[in-house]
Amino acid sequence: MYITPGAGIGEDQRLNGALIRLATYEVEIQKKAAIATACLVFALLGAPIALRFQRGGVGLVIGLSVAVFSVYYIGLIGGEELGNRLIVSPFFAMWTPNLLFAVVGLIGLWRIRKPGNSPHGGDWSDVADVAHAVIRWPSAVLRAVLRERAP
Questions:
Q1: 3-state helix, strand, coil in the chain (%, to 5)
Q2: pTM above 0.85, yes or no
Q3: In the chain, where are the structural domains located?
Q4: Each residue's pLDDT tens digit, 50-90
């Protein structure tokens, strides 16, 4: 029986290294396209925010901008790491932040267009109400699940 040089464990390591290099290149390609598309996604997200919080002032604009950018950046860096390690596909890793923010922007546009949701009059109290609801939501869901499981 003839054994080729490099077969076995060494070959598996070389193949794994090649796949990781390939994934790294694919992640970079997808990242360039995703960052270019992020401009459109941020505009889609910014329109309902600007319509809703007209009286919020400069502090609200800067605060929300920093928050949105921080969450997007963390998602992009985390996705890049997951894609480079072959945990998720490079496409999914780089486009997930864009998809999430686009969905949030579309929901915001949908809510603004409904009758009774006047885009006038939003200020810091509205932001506090939304933040309170977001913080309270997981605990409310957990209580409901525990009530269902209780005998």
A1: 80, 0, 20
A2: no
A3: 10-120
A4: 887 777 777 888 888 899 999 999 999 999 999 998 899 99
